[in-house]
Amino acid sequence: MKWLDTFTERISRDVAKTSSRRGFLGNLGRLIVGGSLLPLLPVARAADSPPLTLPAEGEDPGDPATCEYWRNCAVDGFLCSCCGGSVTSCPPGTEMSPITWIGTCTNPGDGKDYIISYNDCCAKESCGNCFCNRNEADRPTYRPHTSNDYNWCLGTKSAAYHCTVNIILGVAVK
Amino acid sequence: MLKKILLVFVLGIPGVAVLAELPQDKLGAVETLPAEYPDSWVFVHDVSFMHMSSGKYILMDIAGETAKDFYKGMVNSSYISFFASAHSKPEFYVGENFYSRGHRGERTDVITIYDKRTLSPIDEVIITDGKRAEMLPSKYTMRLIADDRFLLFYKFSPATAIGVMDTDKRKIVNTIPLPTCAGIYPTGRRGFSSLCSDGSMVSYQLDSQGQVTGSERVAKFFNVDADALFEKPAIMNNIAYFPTFTGNIQELDLSAAVAVPGDKWPLVTGGDQQANWRPGGAWPAATANEAIYVLMHKDGYEGSHKEPGSEIWVYEVQDKKRISRIVLQSPAIAFDITRGDKPKIIATNIEMGLEIYDAITGSQIRTLDDFYRAGPLLVYASP
Fold first, then answer.
1. Is the pLDDT of residue A22 over 90?
2. Surface-to-core class of residue A20, CB atoms within 10 Å of its CB (0-12 exposed, 13-18 middle, 19+ buried)
3. Do B103 and A160 touch (CB under 8 A)?
4. Which of the residues A10, A71, B85, B357 has the least number of beta carbons within 10 Å of its own beta carbon?
5. Which residue has better confidence, B249 or A172?
6. Which chain B residues contact residue A33 at CB under 8 A?
7. Roughly how many angstroms between the first and final C-alpha of chain B, as a whole number?
């Protein structure tokens, strides 16, 4: 689920943490997609880019279970790494939504901008662990593919939202 | 022991004067409410993000003095619902989803129609294609137009569309596809406008049966990347005042059949620019007393548009000048302002409480620290 994160004391603390990270975050989350494109079009762009070599160990720095992890630059929800899944896999018994919103995050390991697909894991109610809300380049709901205010559990058997994974689609085309 | 208790019942308590017995209470009494609510009544939405099938709207009288006084009643809601309240008939509407097995099974999307007097559902209209949008709550995702005759609601699959429900017939009479646009801003005699992904807008007019009689694209008038409009404007006298991410107001005239972009003017001037004050929160703007009120936070940055606001700034719209700033006790997520001669600000804060301020003087009136173990989000004033 993509929602404002200020409802509990824990979430309030997250806001404070985000505020302290502004200098770092200011360099992240620059979207490259145009305003009128459909959500899946960035996937096609990634496919047109040179074959992707995924970062080797050590080139993907940070703990995916923390909000500071670089792929989380535009996430708004519970991190699946804290919910029985991983940064790229859904927890048991959930279903990954094939329709997503898109962020572009800079990997501090290699300095490259990667297109990140934020796929929701669905069919169970909220995980409740590791809430993360970062809104760099998030835009209002009239531009859906860059809006984390939607429940993106679309095309799944149940639209109940559980958590979100961060999947690399490719290196952003400049 | 049982004998002692029986003796007390039979003989009375020693030393206590014998009083007249209380009459037998009537069983089955249930309170009712007036068909028209006083200005001081508001609905506060608990979206229940941790248990989304268990949301609620609590009806509150903010003229009360204690948590007990505030609470007038409650209705349940399911899966980040939409809300709209009529004024020409004693009804309000909740757009919501259900599953046949709680969080799974067959999905049913529905507009539930409530009687204001009983807070009970009196009817429902099924959205047969199950495409009601689930999203952060907004007052512009479900809206009444044409003197409450039509209820418009936003659909997302991710194709975007507006559903049209006839509130007299209690039937969905139309679905209007949108060219990747969102928001329902009442426009003209019987129509609406929506903001679009490229910074343009579309306006539609409907006939008496809810069918489209005309539509027009309003050319691009803002830059979504450089200075996006919040999709949550304050509307006063048919003029929408949209705050922008970097701290401006974009006016939009909604009085005719097609929306007309108006002036764009700065919220932040002079020395306040150095502190980089910006609008933000889950609900950033409201109106009262011919002024607009904007929730503001300082030290803004790209991505700070959902930050809670530490102050509410008040603007006179004719001269486009700030006339006061209200420093809040705790940073607020959202707020609204009651109607009438003595408008009150009701703000939901990051401590999960409510704060009430005099909208004219800015003085704080009351704080409700414990919001009934729920998470207040949006406030719907004078429903």
1. no
2. exposed
3. yes
4. A10
5. B249
6. none
7. 55
Contact B93, B142 (CB under 8 A): yes
How far apart CA B23 and CA A79 sit, in angstroms, is 59
Alpha carbon of B64 to those of A114, B356, B366, B377: distances in Å? 53, 11, 9, 20
Q: Helix, strand or coil for residue B44?
A: strand
Secondary structure (3-state) at A117 = strand
Contacts of A41 (CB under 8 A, 6+ apart): A33, A145
pLDDT tens digits for range B84-126:
999 999 999 999 999 999 999 999 999 999 999 999 999 999 9
Measured CA to CA, the distance from residue A120 to residue B178 in angstroms comes to 25
User: Judging by beta carbons within 10 Å of its beta carbon (0-12, 13-18, 19+), is residue B326 exposed, middle or buried?
Assistant: buried
Which amino acid is residue B146, in one-letter code? A
Q: Which of A105-109, B142-146, B154-158, B314-318 has the lowest mean pLDDT?
A: A105-109
Res A20 pLDDT > 50? no
Nearest to B94 by CA among B107, B109, B111, B70: B111
Which residues from B are below 8 Å from A35, CB to CB? 197-199, 224-225
A120 is a catalytic site residue: yes
| Token pair 């006839």: residue | B166
Cα(B364)–Cα(B346) distance, integer angstroms: 10
Contact B158 A125 (CB under 8 A): no
Shortest CA gap B198–chain A (Å)? 5
Best probe of the B interface among A1, A4, A37, by most B CBs < 10 A, is A4
- B229-287 pLDDT, tens digit each: 999 999 999 999 999 999 999 999 999 999 999 999 999 999 899 999 999 999 999 99
Reported ipTM: 0.93
Cβ distance of A125 and B52 shorter than 8 Å: yes
In one-letter notation, the amino acid at residue B351 is: E
Alpha-carbon B135 to chain mean position: 14
Per-residue pLDDT band for A44 (boundaries 50, 70, 90) equals: very low
Q: Indicate which residue of A14, A60, A76, A120 is catalytic.
A: A120
Question: What digits encode the pLDDT tens for the residues B54-87?
Answer: 999 999 999 988 778 899 999 999 999 999 999 9
Question: What does the buried/exposed string (b/e) look like for A135-145 if buried means 16 or more CB atoms within 10 Å of the residue's CB?
Answer: bbbbbbbbbbb
A70 catalytic per annotation = no
> Residue written as tokens 């559980």?
A162
Cα(B67)–Cα(B370) distance, integer angstroms: 8
pTM for the complete prediction? 0.88
Spatial contact of A105 and A73, defined as CB atoms under 8 Å apart: yes
H or E, element range at B367: strand B364-368
Residue B80 with chain A: CB contacts under 8 Å: 1, 3, 151
Residue B124 tokens read as 């429902």
pLDDT classification of A130: cutoffs 50, 70, 90: very high
For the segment A93-108, what is each residue's pLDDT rounded down to a tens digit? 999 999 999 988 999 9
